[in-house]
Design goal:
By secondary structure, this protein is of the alpha/beta class. The protein has helices at 11-30, 43-49, 57-62, 81-93, 158-174, 192-204, 217-226, 238-251, 290-302, 306-321, 335-349; strands spanning 2-8, 35-38, 66-71, 98-104, 122-128, 138-141, 149-152, 179-184, 211-216, 233-236, 259-263, 269-273. α1 (11-30) packs across α9 (290-302) and α7 (217-226) runs parallel beside α8 (238-251). Bound molecules: nicotinamide-adenine-dinucleotide, 3-isopropylmalic acid and manganese (II) ion (MN).
């Protein structure tokens, strides 16, 4: 198996090193071979060469079995151009329409909500990942003047909305889950989100075994905090999915815990922690690598290597239970030391 690894910027570099360490350990104990090939695309690389991603970059990525990204974002690139080309560009060019973001609390102690337990925080968010407000359609007129007009269109297509909603229902059915909740702002966004509501109702009718619920996203954000046990599967658009999965990160103990996959079923897909490059933490060996390691686990799960994926999940859970963690979730270890502990646990399981 060949994996492209883009460590990126800031803490992305540090957490990726631990995710790769864990992948190597899994390969070792399971007698598999994972070739991790590092690609230098990052803010540093852009500032040195003027290149965000090479002309054949997306084509090169398609030739791997999977892609892993740490994080992209650097204060020296204020317009975030390299992140848009490398991260959003790959999502769009490889048509990775499913942004899969599980929200699972691994230990009661990590939950910021009063009296909530692991039984209450266990759902997945499917974020549409190829359209919505992220497509960059629009422009600025008279930029920099007091007459400036800024237009950024939100694109919602039948194809895009239909396939992510269907994916959410298929996922629920395959796992025996009973509820799918769609979140939009169809009370205010009366054109684009009317399409979401229409397709949600049409697709739901094909899944009589699953209870469809609809919430406006503002209410959903409130209920995620007030009663997260209401949810099993949430499906929503690109921007709302971005925002609510940071809340999801907090429910799991912090952004450092949250994992994600950017998936086109059956094609080369991209895995990354939900968090960013966290410049204030960079270079200090304090970043929590668990979201990155759990993203490596999602990578293996998506490629059908379920046993290997579970080795990582169990080891991360064991580290959390034993408080062998970074300080953001209450431990005393550094990023590297957490990686070593988790690797050791995987060897012990193997
Ligand atoms: P961020 O996710 O980088 O960090 C926000 C805060 O969350 C941090 O200051 C820290 O307190 C905490 N945090 C995040 N990850 C952590 C970890 N692994 N361990 C411990 N604590 C952690 O969000 P931001 O500060 O808004 O963005 C910083 C840069 O990252 C920006 O350039 C942004 O565009 C970029 N970004 C990139 C991605 C990505 O590549 N997928 C995601 C989000 C943000
Ligand atoms: C994420 C990030 C990205 C997004 C940024 C870096 C463009 O926040 O993956 O959640 O908004 O999708
Ligand atoms: Mn985000």
């Amino acid at each position: 198996m060949r994996i492209a690894v883009i460590a990126g910027d800031g803490i992305g570099v540090e957490v990726t090193a631990e995710a790769v360490k864990i992948l190597r350990t899994v390969a070792e104990v399971s007698g598999r071979r994972f070739d991790c090939e590092a690609l230098p695309w990052s803010a540093d690389h852009y500032l040195k060469t003027g290149i965000t991603i090479p002309g054949d970059g997306y084509q090169r990525l398609r030739e791997f079995d999977a892609i892993f990204i740490g994080a992209l974002g650097d204060p020296r690139v204020p317009d975030n151009r390299h992140a848009r080309d490398i991260l959003l560009g790959t999502r769009f060019e490889l048509d990775l329409y499913v942004n899969y973001r599980p929200v699972r609390l691994l230990d009661d102690r990590l939950c910021p909500l009063k009296d909530r337990t692991t039984a209450d925080v266990n759902f997945v968010v499917f974020r549409e990942n190829t359209e919505g407000a992220y497509v960059g359609v629009g422009g600025r007129f008279k930029a920099g003047t007091t007459d400036e007009i800024a237009v950024q269109e939100e694109i919602n297509t039948f194809k895009g909305v239909n396939r992510i909603i269907r994916h959410a229902f298929e996922y629920a059915r395959a796992r025996g889950l009973r509820k799918v909740c769609m979140a939009d702002k169809s009370n205010a966004m009366v054109q684009g989100h009317a399409l979401w509501l229409r397709l949600f109702r049409e697709v739901a009718a094909e899944y009589p075994d699953i209870e469809p619920t609809h919430m406006y996203v503002d209410a959903l954000a409130m209920f995620m905090v007030k009663d997260p046990g209401l949810f099993q599967v949430i499906v929503t658009n690109n921007m709302f999915g971005d925002i609510i999965t940071d809340i999801g990160g907090a429910l799991q103990g912090g952004l450092g815990m949250a994992a994600s996959g950017n998936i086109h079923p059956g094609r080369t897909s991209l895995f990354e922690p939900v968090h960013g490059s966290a410049p204030p933490l960079a270079g200090k060996n304090v970043a929590n690598p668990m979201g990155a390691m759990l993203s490596a686990s999602l990578l293996l799960e998506t490629l059908g290597k379920r046993d290997a994926s579970q080795l990582i999940e169990r080891a991360v859970e064991a580290a959390v239970k034993a408080n062998q963690t970074t300080p953001d979730i209450g431990g005393k270890l550094g990023t590297k030391e957490v990686g070593d502990w988790v690797a050791g646990n995987i060897k012990g399981q193997g």
